[in-house]
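Entry
Fold in token form

___
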Amino acid sequence: MVVTVFGLGFVGLTTAVGFADKGMTVYGVDVDKNRIDILKDGRIPFHEPGLKEALERNLGKHFFLQEDTETVVAESDCVYYCVGTPYGKGGEADLTYLYRALDTTLAACNDDKYRVLVTKSTIPPSTTAEKIIPYIEAKGYLVGRQIGVANNPEFLREGSCWEDFIHADRIVMGVSDERTKQVLMELYAGFDIPKFCVSLNTGEFIKYLSNTLLATMISYANEMAQLADTIGGIDIAQAFRILHMDKRWGGSSMSSYVYPGCGYGGYCLPKDTNAIYAMGKEKGMDAQILKNVIAVNEARSDYMAMRIEEVMEIGGCIGILGLSFKPGSDDVRDTPAAKVISRLVADGYTNIVAYDPLAMEAFEQHYHLPIVYMVSVEEVLERAEKVVILTAWKEFADIATRTEKAIIDCRYML
């Protein structure tokens, strides 16, 4: 089969190279010319173990980077959309980039070939049925007869995208007709993974069911940690570690989420939790748990900044350890570290030094905050009066043995 993938970020590049690794012909399209040049050189513009090697073995053999979208769409059996769907001011999903990619695709559909257009970008339930299909049909196409439409949500963890795609725990395909289902089942025939063909709305909802649960558990843990602080006399880290021994967890890795920190960040949890809440309001339901999950997360960075300010005088040097939204990733989108540091700066704390194993360059380019970047943990320990852990990198786990300075452990990792 021939596949075109629009958008070559974490999800799109992993999807494109993953299909190519299974022997399909895959064309990659991205509006960022700099990203295309980097990929043509066999490099990837972010940190994802295993993906660079997969790109190298497929580039020019099964995976091709193209600017001529009309030709590649014409050749394709499936067109995948992995473009950004950020949330707007009201929390709703912004479909601008998706519509733009659809326009480019439809302009190239000038024959009778049946193609399946698949949204892999995360979109709220009912979006395919109530927005995407009407948008396509308004342009004169009959969905289910001339064109197939589906959604195929991703369940990829940044820092483990390649492993999660090739060895996924499930493949979910939201479809509305049998012909589209057959095309997608053929596409995934080489994956020995449980496959579920569900309704369009169910496909979209499963992704939000997953992400909003993770977001809820993180905020629950943070709220309980804050309550424990308020009560006093509670060893928060010990309490949560003992909680994780509960046999009802069934040996799962839920402890990665049901554990306090600075709040959830990255790309998926913030935008998806906001988007599903906005969709509920649009449908007439004000979902209180989601509403408060968002509120707790937004307040968490202020609380952490307050903890720091309580023990630090203005003018003193604060050492920040960790800038990415989680360890094992260089992603700084919606990272709690940026929110905490921004609050500190706004409150007059401008003597700040910081270190992160991977994310310093991305953080500096994205946020432009008045902080000084150090090349090592040792430099931070030498310069700072007090040290703050904002990302739970493993190399920070022994920090208490490396300094006698006060440590504000915002990740409860020590």
Observations:
- Residues 200-231 form the longest helix (32 residues).
